[in-house]
Recover the amino acids of this structure.
């Protein structure tokens, strides 16, 4: 679709928090858009669910609840999908791409599950399908991985990519809150949804890890490939031990490209205070990348919110608009040209922090050491605290061990009478 005028017309699907932010930001930047992009950008239709709802500051004549008003309008060249969810977003994006319209999306759920299908459709139609806002809000990471760092063989991408959980863990660490109190505070401030499951169980971060790993390692990773574990079991006691070990606890998305396959997971980790990610506080996000040429690079900023996310969406829109002006759309489509296997998470190696309640009697530590030795688990550190006449709290830090070896050892330990409880199992970076 060649742009023959100096105005590029667009349709917006969804007018929620992010959609409203995109609408406002485009209006705010309208005066300089022609000089910046080479064309004016105009939203001519906005698809909404409820036509009766009052939307202050939005021209009501732009609103429609009929998809055909957009898909059948040949003047609309860019579709901005900000509805979220799988359907009807997937169908609408595919129809738009098949109709030769370019698409910008922030839909991490959809892209993490069906990204290949969408990118293939974009390539077939010589269209742009851009989704910078799907990961880490306003932080540029998709474009850097696809373009700025394209000369690297990237071996690791780790990040704090969920602001809700990072806020909760920050409050637990700095203000001595327990998990329930910190979650209530996050909900009060609007960081957590009424149903926070996707955040606190690691599902939101898992979808973002799938997207980043696919791009970084040039091989398809979908959400179901990502091991996910949330922060609901983290206690104030674990936080105190982390402080004692000069560390913090963060919910990390971890993706590694190894000789035996791609490792992808989301889980709480003890992170030493000297690591750059350890200083990422409150609702901020950060992504840490290791490449063979660039070495280490970190991207930091606001990971969510009306205008940070709108910033990434509008950046993509401007990129598509420039491509339209110079008739070079579809330059960068799917970069997953490899077929690297996904490593079973049982075979992934990690260090572990273990906290357990044991009988305070001779031979318990020797028993634990024997079980660990039988399952190829090497102990790096032991701390005993809170001993009473009957019971003691034991903290064991392991060396690097395969997940399934530790799992087998813990299963055996839990059948031993002197092991009262395994209170915490947290990985250590």
């Amino acid at each position: 679709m060649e742009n023959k005028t100096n105005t590029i017309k667009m349709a917006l699907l969804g007018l929620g928090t992010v959609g409203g932010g995109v609408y406002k930001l485009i209006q705010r930047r309208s005066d300089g858009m022609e000089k910046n992009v080479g064309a004016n950008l105009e939203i001519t239709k906005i698809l909404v669910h409820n036509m009766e709802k009052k939307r202050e500051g939005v021209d009501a004549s732009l609103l429609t609840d009929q998809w055909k008003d957009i898909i059948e309008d040949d003047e609309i060249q860019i579709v901005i999908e900000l509805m979220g969810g799988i359907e009807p977003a997937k169908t609408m994006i595919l129809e738009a791409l098949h109709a030769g319209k370019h698409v910008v999306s922030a839909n991490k759920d959809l892209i993490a599950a069906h990204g290949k299908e969408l990118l293939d459709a974009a390539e077939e139609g010589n269209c742009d399908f851009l989704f910078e806002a799907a990961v880490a809000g306003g932080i540029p990471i998709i474009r850097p991985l696809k373009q700025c760092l394209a000369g690297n063989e990237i071996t690791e991408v780790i990040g704090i990519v969920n602001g809700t959980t990072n806020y909760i863990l920050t409050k637990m660490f700095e203000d001595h809150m327990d998990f329930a109190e910190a979650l209530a505070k996050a909900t009060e401030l609007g960081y957590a949804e009424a149903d926070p499951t996707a955040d606190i169980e690691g599902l939101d971060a898992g979808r973002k890890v799938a997207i980043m790993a696919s791009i970084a390692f040039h091989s398809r990773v979908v959400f179901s490939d990502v091991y996910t574990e949330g922060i609901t079991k983290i206690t104030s006691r674990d936080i105190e031990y982390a402080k004692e070990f000069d560390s913090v606890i963060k919910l990390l998305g971890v993706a590694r490209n190894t000789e035996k396959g791609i490792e992808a997971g989301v889980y709480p980790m003890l992170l030493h205070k000297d690591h750059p990610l350890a200083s990422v506080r409150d609702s901020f996000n950060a992504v840490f990348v290791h490449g063979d040429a660039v070495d280490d690079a970190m991207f930091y900023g606001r990971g969510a919110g009306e205008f940070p996310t709108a910033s990434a969406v509008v950046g993509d829109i401007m990129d598509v608009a420039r491509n339209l002006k110079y008739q070079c759309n579809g330059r960068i489509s799917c970069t997953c040209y490899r077929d690297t296997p996904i490593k079973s998470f049982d075979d992934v190696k990690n260090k572990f922090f273990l906290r357990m309640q044991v009988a305070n009697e001779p031979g318990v530590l020797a028993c634990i050491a024997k079980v660990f030795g039988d399952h190829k688990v090497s102990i790096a550190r032991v701390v005993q605290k809170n001993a009473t006449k009957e019971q003691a709290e034991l903290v064991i830090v392991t060396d690097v061990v395969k997940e399934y070896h530790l799992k087998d050892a813990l299963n055996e330990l839990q059948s031993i009478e002197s092991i009262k409880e395994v209170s915490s199992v947290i990985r250590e970076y």
